[in-house]
Every structure is written in structure tokens, then in C-alpha cells.
Write a structure and sequence with these properties.
The protein contains 6 helices and 4 strands. Helices cover about 55% and strands about 10% of the residues. It has helices at about 15-20, 35-40, 45-55, 70-80, 100-110, 110-165; strands at about 25, 30-35, 65, 95. The termini are far apart. A 4-stranded antiparallel β-sheet has the order 1-2-4-3. By secondary structure, it is of the alpha+beta class.
Length: about 180
């Protein structure tokens, strides 16, 4: 166990991929859980939660909210998180939205918290850009479907006609009875 006077070992800042992996979708909002933020900041989860409790007025519901047991079960099934419960803690995990993460840097105040927050904000911006790109792509696909729908109908009708033309009676080869 580390004593208070032992030198602190600086861990490198997390890379973009690490940060992208901890951003989850809960209640239709992109969030980062308290334990993941604590790991990124290099602090204990309890210390992070205490800082939030001391500054509760800075974290309205749209910045931070506790997860319900149902939220935890959904996260486990959606993302394969290790536990369906609260991970052995006595209180519900906290989920921080983009604004909540930004507010955390002012509450924690350490240089590392500020640096990590900058990287997390960049990750949120990247994700927002990807979502906009996906929405634009979906709109383009829908436009192409609408524009080509009539043409595909014509193609299918031509195929049906070819199939019907192929249904003409086949002339048999071999012994035949001549009509009387």
C-alpha cells in the first residue's frame, strides 16, 4: 500500500481508443461511468464520488445521474460489462454526460484531470461528428432508394414478363398421339 509521502507514479495520458471505449450509451445519452473516469484521472472512484458530493450543485441531472439496476443490466448485455449489479459498491454508479465530464475538471482541479478532460472532450466531438456523418449517409441512402424505387419496379416487371413468356407449353419430343 502506498503511503501519503511516497512519490506518485505518473501514468501516461490515455489514448483516443481507450477514451472512445469508455463512452457508453445510457438512456439515449452518451456517458462515462465514474469508475472509468477515476481510472482515466488516476484517482480512486471513492475520491471522485466524494468530490462530486461536495459540489453537488454543479452536477444537475443532465450532467450526472446515478444508474439504476436496470441500467446496469442493460449495460452488461449491450457492452458486456463484467457485472450486472453495482460492482461491489454500496451506492449506484454515476454516469457523467459530456457536460458533467467538463464540470469534473473544475471540481478535481489537478493538471492531469484537465489534460484527460481535454482528451475526453475531443472524443465526444469525434463521436458527434461520426453520428452526423452516419445521419447524412442514411439520408443519402434513403434518397437513392426513393430515386431508384421506380426503376427497380420496372426491372422486376420485366423479369416477371420473361418468366411468364417461359411458361408457354413445351412441345414434347418423342411418340405423340395425333389428334383425331
Amino acid at each position: 500500500m502506498e503511503s501519503r509521502n511516497s512519490p506518485k507514479v505518473e501514468t501516461p495520458l490515455p489514448d483516443a481508443t481507450t477514451i472512445d471505449r469508455v463512452i457508453l450509451l445510457v438512456r439515449e445519452r452518451r456517458v462515462v461511468l465514474d469508475a472509468d473516469l477515476a481510472r482515466l484521472y488516476g484517482v480512486r472512484t471513492g475520491a471522485l464520488v466524494q468530490a462530486v458530493k461536495r459540489n453537488r450543485d454543479r452536477f444537475p441531472e443532465d450532467f450526472m445521474f446515478p444508474l439504476t439496476r436496470r441500467d446496469c443490466r442493460l449495460l452488461q448485455s449491450r457492452y458486456g460489462l463484467p457485472r450486472a449489479g453495482w460492482g461491489g459498491t454500496r451506492s449506484a454508479p454515476l454516469a457523467f454526460t459530456e457536460q458533467g465530464v467538463a464540470m469534473l475538471s473544475s471540481v478535481l482541479g489537478s493538471p492531469r484531470a484537465v489534460q484527460v478532460n481535454v482528451e475526453i472532450m475531443r472524443a465526444f466531438v469525434r463521436m458527434r461528428g461520426l453520428l452526423l456523418d452516419l445521419a447524412a449517409l442514411a439520408a443519402r441512402v434513403e434518397e437513392l432508394e426513393n430515386r431508384c424505387e421506380g426503376r427497380f419496379g420496372e426491372v422486376f416487371e420485366a423479369l416477371r414478363e420473361l418468366l411468364r413468356a417461359g411458361e408457354s407449353p413445351v412441345e414434347r419430343i418423342g411418340f405423340r398421339k395425333d389428334p383425331p
